[in-house]
Amino acid sequence: MNEDSPLQKLRGVIVSGDCEVAAKAAEEAVRGGIDPIEAMSELRKAMKELGDAFGKGALFLTNLMMGAEAMKAIMEVLRPELLKWKRPTKTLGKIVIGTVQGDIHDIGKSIVGTMLFASGFEVVDLGIDVPDEVFVKKVQEIKPDVLGLSALMTTTKMKQKDVVSLLDGHNLRDEVKIIVGGAAASDEWAREIGADAYAPDAVAAVATVKELLGIREA
């Protein structure tokens, strides 16, 4: 790949985590006629490389966060182009993720969503402070393979339990795998509330989701 090509420049933005130039670089690539499908494929690889390096202890969390933010900025530019091309893409599964009601912490959840996307999953991010009923509604509408519930504070982690209970009350609990995360969660907490798994960070979340869905590493 030409080091000066638009695609290589976008990869460089992800690896360096240069959020300030991410959108501009993506816009220049679009004007240059870049194939958005090919671009997203390469950017996923770049983000996965960052995740692998973080998992091995070769990168700091800050590097992963900056790469994820750059990836999100590029995705915002490329998403309309992907819709224009309307070329089908294969995904490993569908994930709905969000931070529970009363909790406005976004960074960890966003990194998890970006890493899942980079690993080949379709990700629907509901954002922060998501009401219990919205999680249930989205499970009904989207029929995801996995639902991710994030809670950073001990005062809001009970909402993870409430969502699981509400899904059970709507006879939807067996329709979706549930993974919990955030500083307030733990393996013990996941078992206590009836979730399927807990992941302490984004790299672990990807591995855990793959395990839940029976996806073997290539």
Task: Explain this structure.
This protein has 218 residues and is α/β, with parallel strands linked by helices. Strands 2-1-3-4-5 form a five-stranded parallel beta sheet, with helices on both faces. Helix 8 links the parallel strand 4 and strand 5. The longest helix is centred in the middle third of the chain and has 25 residues, at 61-85. The protein starts with 5 loop residues before the first helix and ends in a 6-residue tail after the last helix. The protein contains nine helices and five strands; from the N terminus they run ααααβαβαβαβαβα. It has two domains: 6-85, Methionine synthase domain (Methyltransferase, Methionine Synthase (B12-binding Domains), Chain A, domain 1); 94-212, Rossmann fold. It has helices at 6-16, 19-31, 36-55, 61-85, 107-118, 132-142, 158-169, 187-193, 202-212; strands at residues 94-99, 122-125, 146-150, 177-181, 197-198.
Topology:
Elements: H1 6-16, H2 19-31, H3 36-55, H4 61-85, E1 94-99, H5 107-118, E2 122-125, H6 132-142, E3 146-150, H7 158-169, E4 177-181, H8 187-193, E5 197-198, H9 202-212
Parallel strand pairs: 1-2, 1-3, 3-4, 4-5
Describe what is shown at a glance.
The protein has 218 residues and is an alpha/beta fold. The chain is 56% helix and 10% strand. A 5-stranded parallel beta sheet has the order 2-1-3-4-5, with helices on both faces.
